[in-house]
Amino acid sequence: MARVVSIVGARPQFIKAAPVSHALRAFGHAEVLVHTGQHYDTNMSAVFFDELALPQPAHHLGIGSGTHGAQTGAMLAAVDGVIAAERPDWVLVYGDTNSTLAGALAATKLHVRVAHVEAGLRSFNRQMPEEINRVLVDHIADLLLVPSQTAVDNLTAEGLISGVHLVGDVMVGALASAAARAAARSTILARLDLTEHRYVLATIHRAENTDSPARLADILAALRALDEPVVVPLHPRTRKAIDALGPIPGRAAASGRLTFIEPVGYLDMVCLEQSARVILTDSGGIQKEAYWLRVPCVTLRDETEWVETVQAGWNTVVGADPERIVHAARNVRMPADHPAFYGDTHAADRIAALL
After folding, report:
1. Residue 232 CB burial class (10 angstroms; 0-12, 13-18, ≥19)
2. What is the CATH number for 240?
3. Which ranges of 186-320 does DSSP label H, i.e. alpha helix?
């Protein structure tokens, strides 16, 4: 069996790591979970460990926020020390955040093998920090754990063939487990006075939207133009960006039919997703979850890595243009076909076996 250091730091990584961590331990591997601290408050971090039964990290690095360079540099130095002390066989990284890049770089420089969960995704937009992280990590990883055939094709086009394994998406299993528990336990619809399938759920956190006052203002204008309740759990970075635009309603306060709330835990978020009429988001993970939950999605970006959801007709990419956003939100459809993209609920087991 292998000794595995797993690097997590951001909300989506906690979700992905939960089924993998359980599978690693069931398989007999020794896992050392490391939390960089990239997301650090209760609503963005601790609640996910509780709800997903994710083991508490053996190392919490407490890096926190900062510029990309400062944050990645601090993580690299801290992770380097953990790897040197733990002497693992593998360092396992997830997705496309600065935690992903720091973990992979630290391991490579210490000659420890790197496994990358969610390898091969491409937006083909090098202005996205996440795109740079994906490409760099894929080109130094020893084991590329791929969620879709499209991702395999992307790696092949870049000459990456060795170590590529189509395992499926680990979030399929995480969502399948969470959806039933969310339906039974979450009370968020009652707390927010929402009726199933009669509201819009929106999330905004990507730098391309939060760091552009013009794009952010356009998205907010579109949300306010919708003639139904719109619920927006606000990422801390997004709240700061909206504050910079001018007055914003306070916690759980409304502007017209637009309601801003604090970030919520995974079970409450899944409940909000599966009960929405349509989801508007710039999140990659939520695009997939919308697809698996059979809820139409409108993507507030100019491109997406999850092209299969668009090709199947469940996802519409509109960017930040208010007219396109409003038109797409009002005219979503639910296609008759729902292909089984991204595999089954056993991706985590395949990863444990490969390690």
Report:
1. buried
2. 3.40.50.2000
3. 188-191, 207-210, 213-225, 236-245, 266-275, 284-292, 307-311
Name the more confident of 340 and 24.
24
User: How many residues are recorded in the chain?
Assistant: 355
Whether residue 60 lies in the annotated active site:
no
For residues 16 and 34, give the distance between their C-alpha atoms in angstroms, rounded to a whole number.
14
Q: Is residue 346 part of a domain?
A: no
The answer on 119 and 10 residing in a single domain is yes
Domains contained in the chain, number = 2
Residues 325, 195 share a domain: yes
**Residue 352 located in a structural domain:** no
Instruction: Give residue 55's domain range.
Output: 3-166
pLDDT tens by residue, 36-70? 987 655 555 677 788 888 888 999 998 877 788 88
What's the pLDDT score for residue 254?
42
Q: Catalytic one among 205, 235, 338, 346? A: 205
